[in-house]
Here is the input.
Amino acid sequence: MRTYEVRQGRRAIGQRDATTAQEALMDYVRSLGCRDAEIARLGADALSWRGAVYRAVPVAAAPSHDGLSR
Here is the structure.
């Protein structure tokens, strides 16, 4: 289990603990009311729902606001 930062574009919009980035993303969009049939998987760490693209990045690898790694 690790912590993933969920991002929409450059903006961090949440965090989820999960075993994979895809699991973290699915959990996040389902919490918004998304149904599985509405999701387009774009890769191991990205998906699209209603035209928005969401990505999951491991927290240790997520860049901070000043551009330096945490």
Remarks:
- The mean pLDDT is 89.
